[in-house]
Design brief:
The chain has a domain at about 5-40. The chain is mainly α. It contains 3 helices and no strands. It is elongated, with a radius of gyration of 15 Å. GO terms for molecular function: DNA binding.
Length: about 55
């Protein structure tokens, strides 16, 4: 997918896509994640699981 494709979606600019690709944000909110996924016509599934215990 090119950078121009997501920016054709309403409310998404090429600058935002570029910043997202370079991770130029201090932190990402769930709202931002939802906006990006919506622009890409994608969903995300979060599956909780127990943390692996570190040996040492």
């Amino acid at each position: 997918m090119s950078q121009a494709e997501p920016s054709k979606k309403p409310g998404v600019t090429p600058l935002q896509v570029s910043q997202d690709e370079r991770n130029e944000y201090g932190g990402v909110s769930m709202e931002k994640v939802k906006q990006v996924l919506k622009a890409l016509d994608m969903n995300v599934f979060i599956v909780p699981h127990e943390q692996e215990k570190m040996s040492g």
